């Protein structure tokens, strides 16, 4: 690794950084209320972003984007003592993610590649299809959040936020493996390199 490359956190630490604030939110809610949970969530997500910055020498794009909305809408929740703001956060963030991806595609820019380009090697069509699928998935999560917070109890919404979104996202991500294999370019690059060395 060159001196300019940022060190990468281990998968376990990265997972803990991502899931830690949600667990802190859930534990606090189970012992207090939505307002205490929101305050703890704000502190925890700020801490996780700082740890990510220290470990990887850069700000993680999507967590940083989400964290800003947690702080803004969380502050409104606490200041106005109205839980609707923190409940709207997933809807707003997911709609914005989807909008950014759709607008990028419309302008001929595959913004998902900027975020995931170091994780996958895909051809242009693969990136376009993957971007479309993630954009629609973000819209699905936004709609699902709207249905749950409007028609279910706060308890049900908290459980969905903590224990529902992550499994749904993992299942969706795994369902894209076929696309990644069909449009992957890494194997082709390895084959080309092997052929040139013969």
The dominant shape is globular
Domains, number: 2
Helix content: over 70%
SSE arrangement, N to C: HHHHHHHHH
**Strand-residue proportion:** under 5%
Number of strands: 0
User: Multimeric state of these chains?
Assistant: single chain
Low-confidence parts: 1-7, 188-198
Structural class: mainly alpha
Number of helical regions: 9
Determine Rg (CA atoms, Å). 19 Å
Mean pLDDT: 85
Terminal CA distance = 28 Å
Structure, described:
The protein folds into two domains: 1-80, no CATH class; 83-188, no CATH class. The radius of gyration is 19 Å and the shape is globular. It is mostly helical. The longest helix has 28 residues, at 124-151. Helix 4 runs antiparallel to helix 6. It is built from nine helices and no strands. Residues 1-7 and 188-198 have low confidence and may be disordered.
Give the secondary structure arrangement, pairings included.
Elements: H1 11-31, H2 34-56, H3 61-80, H4 84-106, H5 111-116, H6 124-151, H7 154-174, H8 177-182, H9 186-197
Helix pairs in contact: 1-2, 1-7, 2-3, 3-4, 4-6, 6-7
């Amino acid at each position: 690794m060159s001196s300019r490359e940022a060190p990468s956190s281990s998968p376990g630490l990265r997972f803990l950084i991502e899931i830690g604030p949600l667990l802190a939110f859930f534990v606090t809610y189970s012992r207090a209320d939505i307002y205490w949970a929101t305050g703890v969530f704000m502190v925890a997500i700020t801490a996780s972003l700082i740890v990510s910055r220290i470990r990887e020498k850069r700000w993680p794009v999507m967590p940083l984007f989400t964290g800003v909305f947690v702080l803004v809408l969380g502050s409104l929740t606490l200041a106005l003592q109205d839980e609707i703001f923190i409940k709207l956060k997933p809807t707003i963030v997911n709609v914005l993610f989807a909008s950014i991806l759709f607008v990028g595609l419309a302008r001929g820019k595959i913004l998902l590649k900027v975020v995931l380009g170091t994780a996958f090697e895909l051809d242009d069509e693969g990136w376009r299809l993957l971007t479309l699928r993630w954009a629609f998935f973000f819209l699905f999560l936004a709609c699902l959040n709207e249905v749950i917070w409007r028609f279910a109890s706060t308890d049900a919404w908290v459980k969905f936020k903590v224990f529902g979104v992550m499994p749904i996202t993992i299942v969706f991500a795994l369902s894209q493996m076929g696309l990644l294999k069909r449009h992957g370019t890494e194997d082709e690059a390895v084959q080309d390199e092997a052929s040139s060395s013969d």
